[in-house]
Amino acid sequence: MVLAEAGLMGVIGGLLGLGTGVILARILFIGMTTMSGYQLTFTLPPEGIAISLVMALVVSQLAAIPPAIRAARIRILEALQYE
Asked: Around Cβ 10, how many Cβ atoms within 10 Å?
């Protein structure tokens, strides 16, 4: 359950980060094109999108391993007493 939640947060965070990064990169690109006077084209490689989403998922899963191990060691009755 801990790993599933971390995976969902990793995917959502990756998508939000990717969207924000593309918007900021586009704004920077427009500013650079305007100031330099050169005719440049903005390209967004699909491999970069895929790699960033996979990395967000991998990092979230690696970060969730210690809490998942800790949660697996707790007996159910002990965990329910604190609820």
From this structure: 22
- For residue 49, the surrounding DSSP H or E stretch is helix 46-73
Residue with tokens 């971390």: 6
Q: What gap in Å lies between CA 54 and CA 22, rounded to an integer?
A: 17
* Contact by Cβ (8 Å): 14, 52: yes
The SS3 of residue 2 is helix
Q: 38-50, pLDDT tens digit by residue?
A: 888 888 899 999 9
Mean pLDDT of 2-21: 95
Cβ pair 3, 68 in contact under 8 A? yes
Tell me the CA end-to-end span of the chain in Å, nearest whole number.
Answer: 17
pTM of the model: 0.78
Tokens of 21: 């990064």
Residue 2: closest CA among 77, 76, 53, 60: 60
